Amino acid sequence: MSYQRDFETRLNVGIVGVGSHAYRNILPTMTFLPVRLQAICDLNLDRAQITADQYGVSACYQQASEMYTQEKLDAVFLCAPPRLHPELTCQALEANLHVWLEKPPGMRAAEVEEMIQKRQDRIVVVGFKKVFMPSAHKMIEILNTADFGDLRTILAVYPMTIQPDGAKILQERIHTNWLQNGCHPLSLLLAVGGNVESVATHRGRNGGGVCVLSFTSGAIGNFHLADGGCQPIERYSFFGDGCYVTIDNNLRLTFQRGIPFQYATTTDYVPEGFDTGATVWEPQNSLATLENKALFTQGFYHEMRYFCDCVLNPQSAQQGSLEFALHLMKVYEAALLSEGDPITIDDYPFISTNSPF
């Protein structure tokens, strides 16, 4: 089943926050999910009402806590600013609701720890869309084959920088691009590479820099911070034993197995057979079918459907879990604080934190 109207069993859900992002991506994705949208909450009540009218929803609220108590919901989708996510999530969990929340999960790792303490048997999934991209799933499938071998190194290129004065940013909970968008590539690196042992950030004097991730598996990640704003400029390369996989612009995935040759004697770059060379996957974009649409290629559908399936089955979330989010936030904080020297993740908390809960 691909469409909301086709599902025999649906979750009764509410949404908190119907700004530009939710209107463009989250609400349209619900067309393909086993959900029944019952209530909308937004601080801008006029915007909530206009959106509710469009989607045939009668209940509108300005306060999420009121929606949680007044409506008979199974789950809530949170699309608010990250500074509000911890409080909204904890309120929803206390109301016995399952929670999908947009990334980033909060401003500090300690806030995610608070969510874990309150979660109990409820399902919580954080919307790290790159973890759920079809290209990411294929990458992980290739990584788990004998042909790929051990993951040795990772190279990620993403247009951003990591701001200085990391301690001030964390203590004052300043919303930076490293938090808002840096968690995108970081989530993919952790989903493929696994847990990180230490982080070292080297900042360029003209902007940009390098964030070096040492993974517990022994792999090394070079997160190249391509500051300057040029688009498209997003690439991930994962190097194994005699082969590598590259994801370009999230869409084009190339599995390069190499061409066997003898340096002095090989004369043909296309040897017989099909077990060498490159295999490429990319959207065909010639049909108006779902797999070509951005809601599917970028992972929105897959992350939200995964959440719904975990609730309906029921089963605990593995992808996009709070434990994954906690580790990512620790890496985020370590990268902010590093001035070239490695910061070990196990040394968290790196600086004191005062949780608002």
Q: How can the largest sheet be summarized?
A: 9 strands, mixed
Global Rg = 22 Å
Helix content: 25-40%
Number of DSSP helices? 12
Shape: globular
Widest sheet, order of strands? 14-13-12-11-7-10-9-8-15
Strands, count: 15
- The poorly predicted ranges are none
Mean pLDDT: 94
State the end-to-end distance. Answer: 41 Å
> How much of the sequence is in beta strands?
15-25%
**What structural class results from the helix and strand content?**
alpha/beta
**Order of SSEs, N→C?**
EHEHEHEHEHEHEHHHEEEEEEEHHHE
Question: Overview of this structure, please?
Answer:
The strands form two sheets. The protein has a nine-stranded mixed beta sheet, with helices on one face. A six-stranded parallel beta sheet has the order 3-2-1-4-5-6, sandwiched between helices. The radius of gyration is 22 Å and the shape is globular. Helix 4 packs parallel to helix 5 and helix 9 packs across helix 12. With 357 residues, it is α/β, with parallel strands linked by helices. The model has no long low-confidence stretch (mean pLDDT 94). 42% of the residues are buried. Helices cover 32% and strands 22% of the residues. It contains twelve helices and 15 strands.
